Amino acid sequence: MSTTRTITLIEEEDGGWSAVDEETGVASCGDTRSEALDMLDEAVALYESDEDSIETPAEEREVLRDLGIDPDEVSEARAEADELPEFMQ
User: Fold this and answer.
1) Domain range annotation of the chain
2) Architecture of domain 1-50 in this structure
3) For residue range 72-83, what is the model confidence (pLDDT) as tens digits?
4) Number of neighbouring beta carbons within 10 Å of residue 27
């Protein structure tokens, strides 16, 4: 069975690529166009899986810590949204 997805690809100023699945709003990035698309496929699969979703900011902080990501850095990046790619604002 074939499915059609609408994907927006953005070539970033640094030469990297961002990819956005328009139906789900899921986005990913990579050093190459191909890598961005591969990463997007993985992100969409995770999004569509039966995994528990993150419902609260406290749950998000816990998940970020589990992934080895500093939640405060994420908060700071969100506060400086003008520096984020358009699809993340």
Assistant:
1) 1-50, 52-81
2) 2-Layer Sandwich (3.30)
3) 888 887 777 666
4) 21
DSSP-derived 3-state class of residue 69? coil
Q: Is 7 left (phi over 0), alpha (psi -120 to 50) or beta?
A: beta
Rg, the chain, Cα only: 14
Phi and psi at residue 18, to the nearest 5°: -120, 145
Alpha-carbon span 54 to 63, nearest angstrom = 8
DSSP reduced 3-state for 60: helix
Residues 6+ apart with CB under 8 A from 65: 71
Between the CA of residue 7 and those of 1, 25, 27, 65, 86, what are the distances in Å? Answer: 19, 10, 9, 30, 15
Alpha-carbon span 49 to 41, nearest angstrom: 12
Q: What is the pTM of this model?
A: 0.56
